[in-house]
Specification:
The structure is a homodimer. The first copy, chain A, contains one helix and 14 strands; from the N terminus they run βββαβββββββββββ. Chain A has about 160 residues and is mainly β. The radius of gyration of chain A is 15 Å and the shape is globular. Strand 9 of chain A pairs antiparallel with strand 1 of chain B.
Chain lengths: ~160, ~160
């Protein structure tokens, strides 16, 4: 059956970020719906943000298109130009290679949820707008994330 | 701005199908949200079905993953096993190459809406489960759709 039973999709919590950024992702969780349904060409995740939580560090993708559709509550989109509140039925697109970093904050006292779609590119680099960090994903590293500073040196902590 | 203003996205109506199938798509329209937002790696369309309308002929994709998220009303998913009613927040995934054809019907008296994501593969063949027809999309044909019978011969009408 192609219908996805969300009660059978494992709730993903935590973060692949090194500290101190991993701890900043507290209150964020997600269901990997696309993966649960057997999709391999792009991911579709339902992201849940508790009050005060953020979706990720502000970032942009070199190779992967990203699309967001708000499902519940209010999500505040933050990008170079500032903040915009998005509500259920609002959507946003972040084409690969556009260096205007984005993330979503829940500034309300209720849970907020959005659906996010992202291509599964063979290799990917994401750049974090507000900190000196990038992440490199390559199949050669078995899909593992390799964090560096923006000068390409191994990440050793905030600087 | 990455936020998509749906009032500025052209409403797509009609069908690329040859008759008599094009007329069967009456009451279906869509907004190409991903394209409006500059995405090229996959499409994200908000599909609207008037009462009695269908999303497409029942079909499956050779090369493209497909994902559906119901936004409003009730959508009846039809596939080999039969029918399943899907409601807002329900989702379904159709991995590329799985020959279990699907489409969505609106059997209610209210509008139904769903979000559909589909990879933009370099070449694609979609097979229509219930009629003797296939469609081939290739960049060499400038993105045009080429309809054939299932034996590969040019499509000349229902048989």
């Amino acid at each position: 059956m192609p219908i996805i039973d969300p009660t059978k999709v494992p709730l993903k919590t935590g973060s692949i970020y090194p500290e101190p950024y991993a701890s900043m992702m507290k209150g964020r969780s997600s269901l990997r719906l696309g993966e649960a349904g057997g999709l391999t060409q792009y991911g579709v995740n339902l992201v849940m943000l508790e009050p005060g939580a953020m979706s990720s560090l502000r970032h942009w993708h070199h190779n992967e298109d990203e699309f967001v559709w708000v499902v519940e509550g209010e999500c505040t989109l933050v990008q170079d130009e500032g903040e915009t509140v998005m509500r259920p039925g609002d959507s946003a697109a972040f084409p690969a290679g556009n260096p205007n970093g984005h993330h979503f904050l829940n500034r309300t006292d209720k849970v907020a949820k959005f659906l996010v779609v992202g291509t599964k590119a063979p290799t990917e680099t994401a750049v974090y707008s507000d900190v000196d960090m990038m992440v490199h994903m390559t199949p050669g590293l078995s899909g593992k994330a390799h964090f560096t500073h923006k000068d390409g040196s191994d990440w050793t902590g905030p600087r």
